[in-house]
Amino acid sequence: MAAQDLYEKVVELAVRRGFFWQSYEIYGGVAGFYDLGPLGARLKQKIVGLWREYFIKRHQDLVVEIETPVIAPARVFEASGHVEHFTDPIVECMKCGRKYRADHLVEDKLGINAEGLSPEELTKLIREHGVTCPACGGPLGEVKLFNLLFKTTIGPYEGNIGYLRPETAQGMFVDFKRVYTVMRRRMPLGIAQIGRVARNEISPRQGMMRLREFTIAEIEFFFDPENPMQGLEERLAERSREKIAILRAEDRRRGEEKPSQYSLEEAVREKIVATPWMAYWMLVAQDFIQALGVPRQNTFFEEKLPEEKAHYSAQTFDQLVKVSRWGWVEVSGHSYRTDYDLSRHMKYSGQDLRAFRQYPEPRKVKKKIILVDKAWLGRTYRSKAAEVLRELSSIDPETVVKMLQEKGVLRVAGVEIPKDKVTIVEKEVTVGGEYYIPHVVEPSFGVERLLYVTLEYAYTVKEGRTVLRLPRRLAPIEVIVLPLTADEKLVRRAREIYMDLMKKGFDVSYDEAGSIGRRYARADEAGVPAAVTVDYQTLEDDTVTLRDRDTWRQVRVPCSRLAEALRSFLNGASLDDVGAKYST
Amino acid sequence: MAAQDLYEKVVELAVRRGFFWQSYEIYGGVAGFYDLGPLGARLKQKIVGLWREYFIKRHQDLVVEIETPVIAPARVFEASGHVEHFTDPIVECMKCGRKYRADHLVEDKLGINAEGLSPEELTKLIREHGVTCPACGGPLGEVKLFNLLFKTTIGPYEGNIGYLRPETAQGMFVDFKRVYTVMRRRMPLGIAQIGRVARNEISPRQGMMRLREFTIAEIEFFFDPENPMQGLEERLAERSREKIAILRAEDRRRGEEKPSQYSLEEAVREKIVATPWMAYWMLVAQDFIQALGVPRQNTFFEEKLPEEKAHYSAQTFDQLVKVSRWGWVEVSGHSYRTDYDLSRHMKYSGQDLRAFRQYPEPRKVKKKIILVDKAWLGRTYRSKAAEVLRELSSIDPETVVKMLQEKGVLRVAGVEIPKDKVTIVEKEVTVGGEYYIPHVVEPSFGVERLLYVTLEYAYTVKEGRTVLRLPRRLAPIEVIVLPLTADEKLVRRAREIYMDLMKKGFDVSYDEAGSIGRRYARADEAGVPAAVTVDYQTLEDDTVTLRDRDTWRQVRVPCSRLAEALRSFLNGASLDDVGAKYST
Q1: B22 and chain A in contact, CB less than 8 A
Q2: Cα–Cα distance for residue pair B413/A176, rounded to 1 Å
Q3: What ipTM was estimated for this complex?
């Protein structure tokens, strides 16, 4: 199978050259955990940097980044619904005790799509088709739900449960009001975060593609549902004709497997994407994936069916990229989370997390006003009266009316006010706006998958040799310095140039071991875009050759202009242009 | 207390402007967890970027960065000694059940230094001095040890314990052999990591200074203990006369509280610092802390007393910085971990994690050679004979000798070879080198503390207004664009300039609300080094004013050269120089 070979080749290269490998190798490895080596850690940093540029820096007028902890108290994930819903079906062998993810087992054995089936349905399928333990052939028990949150205890008290976050999103929801206030109540407001998350997968078996711990880069983008175009007008106008490749849920139901092209304007107008900002971020995501080196035709958005969606989502698109071994895999998810999360946190925390909508013109509205017999209040509660009045003013009048109806008495600030001391009047007042719960769209990326995809698309073979054609700006090593031979004079000059480029901030490497051809090959395989070779001519006229990883062609550049020439080349100039511009 | 006031002012500013705040505020907060807001997250990124520059990028010839998971299987922290040693003393009130960190409680109540005392000693002090529960006055129980590792379960099997790492270091130790191989066995080898760690503190009460989850930036620097100067010669020569401020353990014992100045050369020669690379990294750390804005005299290295050191350390220095509320606090630790960690992982994993030391000249050594009667072996074990020979060749001959002496028989690859079929000959062979366990020095920084320290040192008051004098290259917002008034023409031009600077990659903000004076004040308080003001002259000659946060002085710059002028200013040029160079 040629397709499988590519995956194996990429992984072999990744391990050998230090992009990634399974964690805890010396202890036999632990499934679902991967380490990034020297090249992988830098590649990841550059991918994250690119994401930051596309999603945050170019949208600084609207999007800010925050950082919140991995560990959260249980209450947060009770509110978010994860304690209840973030589960996978699990089944245990009654004989050997091994545990399996039940839907995957059923899919493997019966060749059907079992996503979204209930534990009862899965148990029934297992019984009906006589599915047994793949390891020992023993009978399988009842399918149950297994919660994927990693659980721990915060502090020395045992009841104090904490969970590791499975997404960074709840950090943004919990912080929404604070960030909204800090940003001086501007809407719309995007809150981004790039951070570690953990999902306790039952038995992950897809290497870097399904990890128990990984990095998410995501934005919770808060907007006014009654004004969903706010802040988007200019950007939409600029890009309205650009196409997004989408495979709709209704088309999938009909058996369609290929996406259609919709312009941004059409996707919004026809409500193919439920809300405009979601469509816009999908377009940005499409650009971003191409910047990693994935051709346009190898990525599209697949709308999830209702049974495939997460519990919080009104509409979800997975952005898919074609990879060798697994076909189309998800690299990002785009969910319309509506006001689900903020509403839940309002309920669970008792805090007001609403934003304020200014009316274009102030409006006159009828409003109930609560009046308390102040003379009585002062006599009865004396020094406490002021506090009672203050607290009363912060309570919604409708709540007061309800309380009086139900209890016949008003309880405020720890005191009681009988019904006959309270008067309710209705008054016409002028109001400038109203409070509302913002809606949210969420573009969310799995960074380690992006890293794998980037590597696979960069992997090429030229004349029988592996060349890792990483986009220049993503290359972990930007330039390598090579003395042509081991001649001491060449080595000395090459090391000077190497140290000089290091001081100038380049990601630079140096190699003097082996033939020059072998060293070029090693650099090509590590994806180094530029090689600088110090040869005998260097000692005469202080020029070096600059070699292009992809074409293997070279130009000569004076050392005095080398840094400049390199910057230009790394920013995308062709070798010819660099040669022409900097050769003298 | 004026000193306390500064801390409170910094925290008040940090919360109000969005540098940091306590996590899970809407749920009442959880001690030991802090969020970074929009300004804090960027400041942290820039501090991390600066650290990367000082410790990694300037040492690319020796130091690489990796990334490993937060969650590790129990075995890793059994090997590292953390399961046994990473504890704090805890005591519980027998009446109300509250739990306290026993040494801190004793220190608070008795005013003595209780660091390093055993649970028995602490219990004795509590009994002798009648220390009771600070909350309810109830009697206290026995002091016990509480392990600070956050515990969880990996996967669906309950016995599969995992811990959250309390330091990133074990990732580098576990990966040492892999990285050493990937880097083509170069020594010395620094492996750096910047990542989240978690420590389940008993009752953290110092805000950002003592967190249960935070970011560490650290290097495990592996070197040959028989050649401890390797790779350091040039750098040492360049910097040998530079001074490091150190307070030695022996001087602390004598009651000394002030550091002395030692040149790098002296620190190494006199073994004030146990090994040369540790001294070098301390010098780099000293530079780095100054680059955050801490004056030279406000940081020094305090050598830890034996009872204060971690279990793995032969010598430790804490780098201290003076802060308002807590006096001298640790911002980095410098430990000589020797071969402790690698030896432990070799023992626990059964893997060979040694490096290879090439002899300057090949040496002739006497070596025992194991010869097996091959004819007998082939007859007896047939197809298995080859495997037996292969395995035999990988066993240390001394082990074979010992096994034969003790058991009279050799067990290899599951078969037995009687003594009389084995001959041991001694031969002189030429060897090129030998294996050894590298030693390690570790510079380790707590990033959130660095962030707090940076803020506190930036906090100044000028003419009654707060000015956050962050080093320009660390400023979360580099430049703010302001229309002089709300005049539509000025606003339009200002927004154009704003979007243009955004496209050019600046961290830029925009503000049109309120008087220009108030907006300058807001920007100064957020540490924005440069303000660009669009006024009526802008509409005439397309120039803007560029204002310096620290001096409040302004120069005029043409819009066409604004980006260039800003880059120069942000890179450290004075406003006068920028004005002179770019004014036309």
Answers
A1: no
A2: 63
A3: 0.92
